[in-house]
């Protein structure tokens, strides 16, 4: 029935928007993750027998070991140079091989793949498996196949790096503009031609940044591969610790720390230069586009001359001064050639003699044949559970401690600027020491077991979380905090109401990422006797129980993938 009331022209009421319940989905997820972190941390403390008394006693034993290691005994300069060169060769050769293998793998694993359907799931399995198993675990396998030395280390670095490079490059391929690729397909180009001519040039800057970042990681990993006989400076460290020569071990640790810190500074400088060049090229393209649009409008109006018409005909992204070999183009080509030469020299220097290669094939066949069927057991599952508890407990404790350190270092929350500088330098030094070095020291001081592994992961997780949290705090909007401070709110009140609500998503996402990294490293620490599944893996390979090795690799991959999936879902709902 139609109403006959006269129409009123009063303004409509403001839409209050959807009413959110007191406990929104984001709050429930954050609260659930917090409760789970507390529960896992408590379970880890109970599992390894951690208490204030045991922690104090362990730290006291560690302090006595450090006093025995002082002063450090540095190796000869020639020996140091040779070990560093071998470490760098392993990292460069492994990263180069991984980059070459990752490019086709990334194109196949991307959602934009148009080839056979079965190839994409197979490529994704390879990406997940190689990313989940740590470098040191691959090194143990390759040492068994190829024997002791740098070739096994380079292959381990390459196989593990494929997962990360291919994953990040596949994301870049999926985000690339699809129009040029569709145009090439419409002209009859095949998938390989489309990838090489239209997609690869657009993702090449992203590929360069990914490879540089992975090289930085691989240099850190190569520094400790020698612990399992895979070459590099880690061989000298393992020899010194095995012979109880703690002064020499301290000297080698100092060399590793200095090497990692110098390379980190170099990597940061190179990545910053690469970003600046990429930004400059994009600005040039935008300016050229504006100039071409202006010239076309002038041509249509009848005001252009011969020169401007030629300018309008230039290819996309090119200005008159961009044609030919300028200084920037020469430097880029020279850098690419130099990179290729360094990679080939590194690869050639690590190629084993033909006799070792011929003997590797029977070993490889024996390893692959012995891996099926995988032999799961109760001991294996308990070892995996121990690694999981160590990693999650250390990541939770590290996130709590890292938050405190981040508040001391972030520009908007630090109570004293000089304190912020001191804490930042300390965190850089702590992050520069590989986790395995911490584990070796704690095992030497406290003995075998998960207690040593937990302490090593706790330290590394704290330093990494503090770095992530401090960067995130400095990127938050400072206006709410400043507004609350200006009306007389105390420091903790301004933080709780003005900073913490903004910081919760980043805090949760970074904490899950730290837990993911800690889980991978917990496998590595077990190889040094610091608890977890790593020791069981090394023992299975030494006793030729490859079916147990296969079961361990599958279990590690499943657990790591589950943690990654949880982190991805939580970030999608919180960020």
Q: What's the SSE pattern?
A: HHHHHHHHHHHHHHHHHHHHH
Q: From the helix content, strand content and strand pairing, which structural class follows?
A: mainly alpha
Rg over alpha carbons: 28 Å
Biggest sheet, in brief?
Answer: none
In round numbers, the mean pLDDT is 76
Q: Overall 3D geometry?
A: globular
Total DSSP E strands = 0
Q: Are there runs of 5+ residues with pLDDT below 50, and where?
A: 1-23, 301-321
Q: Bin the helical content.
A: over 70%
- Gap from first CA to last CA: 49 Å
The percentage of residues in β strands lies in under 5%
> Helical segment tally?
21
Put the structure in a nutshell.
This protein is 78% helix and 0% strand. With 575 residues, it is mainly alpha-helical. It is globular and about 70 Å long.
